[in-house]
Every structure is written in structure tokens, then in C-alpha cells.
Amino acid sequence: GSAAEQKSWCVAIDNTNLNTLQSNIDYVCDKLNCKILSVGGSCFYPDTKLNHASVAMNLFYRNSGNKDCGFNGSGDIVDKDPSYTGQYRTKCTYA
């Protein structure tokens, strides 16, 4: 992909229904390795559906060649890197 493509990430929209977020997590993690979201994983904290869904959705987005961030209207493409340092100083890096 071009440099421009690499500068976008897919995250969950803030007010998305929790069931939708869980469906997104299940959908992605059925297909891809979501180990970073399990206990002890670098993106487990904060342990919220919104955080976990955003990390999972971005994995899927990367895996689709930065094409698929729809998730039935619950995905949003952002140009600011959502990676963060969580509690216990674990760095959650968005792919």
C-alpha cells in the first residue's frame, strides 16, 4: 500500500450499541488472531467493548488492505493513530 493508505485506522464509533461492538469483535476474532485483546495482551486494558472492538476492527481493516471498515455503519476511518500506553505501561499498538 501507499504511504497515504498506511496513515488511516479503523475504529468503532463512540456511541455504538454494545451488542454490535461484541458482534464486531466475534466476527473479526473468528478470522484473525486477537491475542492482544486477551488477558495479559497489550490491548486488554481498558477492558471495554469499545476499546476491544476498535482494536479488532482495525486488525480487520489492515488485513483487508485498508478497504473494509464498514461494520454495518459502526466503523469510522480516522487519520490519527489511536495507539496508546495503557495501565501497567503496556503499549497498545494499532496495526
TrEMBL record:
Origin: domain of life: Eukaryota
Start and end residues of each X8 domain: 8-94
InterPro entries per record: X8, X8_dom_prot
Keyword Lipid biosynthesis: no
Keywords in alphabetical order: Signal
Alphabetical list of Gene3D superfamilies matching this protein: 1.20.58.1040
Protein name per its UniProtKB record: X8 domain-containing protein
Pfam families linked to this entry: X8
Any one cellular-component term (Gene Ontology): plasmodesma
